[in-house]
Specification:
The protein is 37% helix and 10% strand. It is an alpha/beta fold. Strand 28 and strand 29 form a beta hairpin. Helix 6 crosses helix 10 and helix 11 packs parallel to helix 12.
Length: 1067
């Protein structure tokens, strides 16, 4: 590549990018690069300018990055742009993290400060050093902690009756907290000697003792930790100028994430040769303060350097729409601090001044739309998570695959928010992945329970293709169950035994294993395997195969499996001692057990709330369980993190694992450097955003899901950080989350403060909207249209995604109507429904929803009952066969939920003849002993809508609101006068007759023998004035409801010797 070719690269840059690229290489330059401004492109073009135009050897240039992957990205991008015959010019480029570059320096010159071939210290070695230091704790320091004179809280009191105050073991030191504080001191450039010299009220004698001991023992071992790499590297460069490198230019990527110590190292690198420096970053995206990143480094650099520093602020955003940009800019430029109170509290009143950048400039997007960011409020995390899954379903329903799952992300502030979101993703069959965090389904106790469930339902399955899976399930269960007498040697022997007999069912082999003392050497282990088969596998398998189809039966099965597997005893057996009498160790064990039990209960919620596709929702049999397991196995939910400094273009979510089309769920910190077409930012409420809890609480090691009960902000990130500093950090985190969105942005909050105590559970804390969402911003967001507000806005979405709108809709115009789709969404928003609407109906099972069609008669099981009501049928037929008949407003249905009341006059509805092709398909029937003809298809036990055959004079059903529908040719039938006559539910009740208060519907019976999924509800109506006391308990009128899956033609028929009139289905 020659200079002329480089001009072609410059032609792709805007004016400010070109100015930054061609800036004089011997001078100092800061490039302020907001989100989406092409930061990585600038880094690459600047390097090409230095090597190809300025002729600086690559070995004389150093490039620092945030992570290893970012370093590799830079090298790969250079290789892509530079011709093969010129690539050698970049081979010696020094690219790496600060830690890797300092390690090379210490390996070469470390002997000058007493480090000869240093190696990285391990966690176990660190723990051993501190344990020895705690054992050798001097008496005066013991008294120091005993009298609570310590400044840094790194010790807990071990409550134990056997221990006295004279026993040093009463103090329980938190080694991780000690290491964290020492790390903070090192990041500030303080050795133990310099820390000792600080004295004053900031000097903690205990920390000083541990720091000195740790530093001394590590030096003797010739070990360094990651903080030492920077601290010792800085000491070496500072005290031994002969070790200063001779670089011609230094380029720092993600400069906002550097610490004060790293800034000092950069200035020392440039000292010897007076090298040019280029730093690229955005102080508004500094979100790693817990790693000592300093947003003030931009300003500090200008103050520390003798030479002038030029700042070039990029002002073009190539990622987001202008409305999203404006929303982000409003957040980052607003002041949410109370400086007056902060000054009184001892905080730094100069913080606002420090955060003001005189080089701020307006940020302009490359496109805009009529729709903007969407803001919604909810009263619970479950409602919020359900809303997210519903919106994803609507977005992915648009024709032409305009919005893939991989183009959607849910960015959370804390890991604790993920579990509830996962629950609704799984329930609604939405594929997802979790970046950098452990997914709910990956927790050991959840995996163990699922393995037990899989083994139970496949217990009698002899399919050889399952043998390998059965082997895995058995081995994992035996390995995870505690105190079963099966150790590593026995597990290894069992595995070998299974391997020698691959053609035999592992469950049969397990019986053989229990008889071989050479395989399982422990008697307790052999007895456990026998009990495992006899008391767990066999009865649980029988229970699963005999499920009666009811939710109650499925609930009992889950509890039975949980108890028989032994997991309930392991996870729900909490120490019954008084909390004050428990030791810290007992409390930790109880907390761990509680978190495991809570996760199993969350799994139970997912299990019972699962919406199947192949089986009907209320058919809770073993087929339901198989489909639930299949849905769980569909979604591998845990993935490695993506380097936050990766190239923005390459890190586009749709380019990552595109073959696995899944929604991304991750924390805001893991989303740094990534972008998606659609972004959801949930939990924008106080105590979450801003999140002022400590960083270790944020990590949520126990995996407990976030609820309205446990949200808290009582612990703070740093004892030295002012509240203003924390708020500013959280504001930047929020800004980064919002700026990940390209086209669509959804902001949701939990706000239940207005709820009365009677409506809100007493143990739930009131939550309010985040302070970052001021009323001014909310009003602006509510004024924006949403993407589904009109055909025009939908067309704009297709346009900005470079997709031909007409080409997507024309081929399916007979099956899909955009206007119907938009009307359904409008109803969904107006009614604030937690279920989506499709073709004018509320959808309860998203899995059964055919999103390719919304035109025509839909009788799918996705709706409330799976039935088309008589009113709906009349309306549909009227539209199809006549334009002159007024649509009936009466809804002919059978309802047991409310008594028939009122004196409204009957409404006459004209029933149009139905063409034969619209009749329900033929189904098989099972004759029951009660004389009822019952369809074999599963149905929902909810309110039933019955359409009568047009070829017979219809029996008219009572309307729910008490009105009686009239046939156009006959009067409504009267209710029977005799209380002893049993009437079919299809018969009409007398207009003014009420169902009496003593109506009994508690008698539910299910025929288990023939696997009858239908519930017969008997309604007894008694008239005491007509019956003597002995007859009152025996007599009554009985109504029996057959709950059917599809509309059938009906006819009356008397069965057996009873007077029950039933609706049966004609052949």
């Amino acid at each position: 590549m020659d200079k002329l070719d480089f001009e072609g690269v410059l032609a792709t840059l805007n004016d400010l990018q070109r100015e930054a690229t061609l800036f004089e290489h011997r001078q100092l330059l800061q490039i302020k690069a907001p989100p989406g401004s092409g930061k990585t492109r600038i880094v690459i073009s600047r390097l090409m300018f230095l090597v190809l135009v300025c002729k600086i050897p690559a070995s004389k240039i150093v490039v620092t990055t945030f992570g290893k992957k970012a370093a590799n990205e830079i090298k790969e991008r250079l290789i892509e742009l530079v011709p093969t015959d010129q690539r050698y010019l970049f081979m010696d480029l020094n690219v790496g993290t600060f830690h890797s570059l300092c390690l090379k320096l210490l390996m070469k010159h470390g002997y000058r400060i007493g480090l000869h071939n240093p190696t990285i210290i391990s966690e176990s070695e660190q723990k051993l050093i501190f344990q020895n230091a705690i054992t050798a704790l001097p008496t005066e320091l013991y008294d120091y902690y005993l009298n609570h004179q310590n400044i840094v809280h790194v010790v807990k009191w071990e409550k134990n009756e056997k221990k006295t105050q004279d026993d040093k073991n009463i103090l329980d030191f938190d080694i991780s907290m000690i290491l964290k504080y020492i790390s903070k001191l090192k990041s500030q450039g303080l050795t133990s000697e310099k820390y000792k010299q600080t004295s004053g009220r900031n000097l903690d004698q205990g920390i000083l003792y541990f720091y000195e001991t740790y530093e001394k023992d590590a030096n003797e071992m010739q070990k360094v930790d990651f903080d030492d790499l920077l601290l010792q590297g800085y000491r070496l460069l500072k005290n031994h100028e002969e070790t200063l490198p001779h670089y011609d230019h230094i380029l720092v990527d993600e400069f906002q994430d550097t610490s004060a110590l790293q800034l000092q190292i950069v200035l020392l690198w440039a000292k010897r040769a007076r090298s040019g420096i280029t730093v690229v970053g955005d102080p508004d995206q500094c979100i790693y303060a817990f790693r000592d990143a300093s947003p003030s480094n931009f300003k500090d650099m200008r103050h520390l350097c003798d030479d002038s520093v030029t700042v070039i602020p990029l002002n073009q955003n190539y990622r987001s729409s202008q409305k999203i940009i404006d929303c982000c800019q409003h957040i980052i430029k607003s002041n949410f601090n109370d400086l007056e109170n902060e000054s009184q509290d001892g905080g730094d009143p100069q913080i606002a001044e420090d955060l003001i950048d005189e080089f701020e400039s307006a940020l302009c997007g490359q496109f805009d739309t009529d729709f903007g960011p969407v803001y919604r409020e909810f009263t619970s995390f479950d409602q919020e998570a359900m809303h997210i899954s519903n919106e994803i379903k609507y977005l992915t329903s648009l024709p032409g695959n305009i919005m893939k799952y991989s183009e959607i992300a849910v960015l959370v502030r804390t890991n604790r928010q993920i579990t509830t979101i996962e629950k609704y993703m799984i329930t609604n069959y939405i594929p997802y992945r979790i970046i950098g965090s452990k997914g709910f389904l990956s927790y050991p106790e959840v995996v163990l329970f699922m393995n037990c469930l899989k083994l139970v339902v496949n217990f009698k399955n002899r399919d050889k293709t399952l043998f390998s899976n059965k082997k895995t399930w058995i081995l994992e269960i035996l390995n995870e169950i505690e105190n079963n007498g099966i150790g590593e040697v026995s597990l290894l022997n069992i595995n070998k035994y299974f391997a020698t007999k691959k053609d035999i069912d592992p469950i049969d082999l397990l019986l053989e294993v229990s008889e071989h003392d050479k395989i399982v050497t422990n008697v307790k282990g052999r007895e456990y395997i026998k009990a495992f088969m006899k008391t767990f596998l066999m009865p649980c398998s029988d229970f699963a195969t005999s499920l009666d189809g009811t939710e109650e039966g499925l609930t009992r099965f889950f509890a039975f499996l949980y108890r028989r597997s032994g997991l309930e005893k392991s996870y729900n057996d909490i120490n019954t001692k008084n909390e004050d009498d428990k030791s810290e160790n007992d409390k930790k064990k109880d907390e761990l057990k509680k978190s495991k039990h809570n996760r199993i209960m969350t799994l139970k919620e997912m299990f019972l709330g699962f919406m199947p596709v192949k089986t009907q929702k209320n058919n809770y049999t073993v087929e339901f369980i198989f489909e639930f397991i299949e849905s769980i196995d569909m979604f591998p939910v845990e993935e490695n993190g993506i380097d936050p400094a990766a190239d923005e273009k390459k890190s586009n979510a749709s380019d990552i694992n595109d073959e696995n089309n899944r929604v991304t769920i991750c924390t805001v910190h893991k989303s740094k450097g990534l972008e998606w077409s659609t972004v959801f930012v949930p939990g924008c409420s106080e105590k979450i955003i801003p999140c002022l809890i400590s960083s270790n609480e944020d990590a949520n090691s126990n995996g407990e899901k976030l609820t309205e009960e446990n949200v808290s902000f009582e612990k703070y990130k740093s004892p030295n950080a002012s509240s203003n500093q924390m708020i500013e950090e959280e504001k930047r985190v929020f800004y980064v989350a919002l700026s990940r969105a390209k086209h669509l942005l959804y902001i949701t909050a939990i706000d239940n403060e207005d709820k009365s105590e009677g409506e809100r559970s007493s143990n739930k804390r009131p939550m309010i909207r985040s302070r970052f969402l001021k009323k001014e911003l909310i009003d602006r967001l509510n004024a924006y249209s949403n993407v589904f507000s009109s055909v025009k806005t939908v067309k704009q979405l297709y346009e900005i995604k470079s997709t031909n709108f007409k080409a997507c809709f024309d081929p399916i115009k007979d099956d899909f109507s955009l206007k119907t789709f938009l009307r359904d969404y409008e109803i969904y928003v107006e009614e604030k429904s937690w279920q989506i609407y499709w073709n004018g109906k509320k959808v309860y099972n998203l899995n059964a929803l055919d999103v390719t069609k919304n035109i025509g008669i839909v009788t799918s099981t996705m709706f409330a009952t799976g039935f088309v009501s008589a009113k709906q049928h009349v309306e549909q037929m009227a539209e199809k066969y006549t334009d002159n008949i007024e649509r009936s407003k009466a809804k002919r249905s059978l309802s047991l939920s409310k008594p028939v009341t009122g004196n409204a006059p009957p409404i006459v509805s004209k029933v149009l003849p139905s063409p034969s092709q619209n009749y329900a398909p033929k189904v098989k029937y099972v004759k029951k002993s009660r004389g009822l003809s019952i369809p074999t298809q599963r149905t929902s036990p909810k309110k039933l809508n019955v359409m009568l055959s047009p070829k017979k004079k219809p029996e008219l059903a009572p309307k729910t609101d008490s009105e009686i529908l009239k046939s156009p040719k006959r009067k409504p039938l009267k209710a029977p006068d005799s209380p002893t006559k049993q009437v079919s539910p299809s018969r009409a009740l007398k207009n003014n007759q009420n169902i009496p208060d003593n109506c009994d519907i508690s008698n539910l019976s299910i025929d288990d023998k023939e696997d009858n999924p239908f519930v017969n509800v008997a309604i007894k109506t008694e008239k005491k004035e007509d019956l003597d006391p002995t007859q009152q308990k025996k007599k009554g009128s009985q109504k029996t409801i057959d709950q059917m899956f599809k509309l059938q033609r009906g006819k009356k028929r008397k069965r057996m010797e009873t007077t029950i009139e039933t609706i049966t289905l004609s052949d």
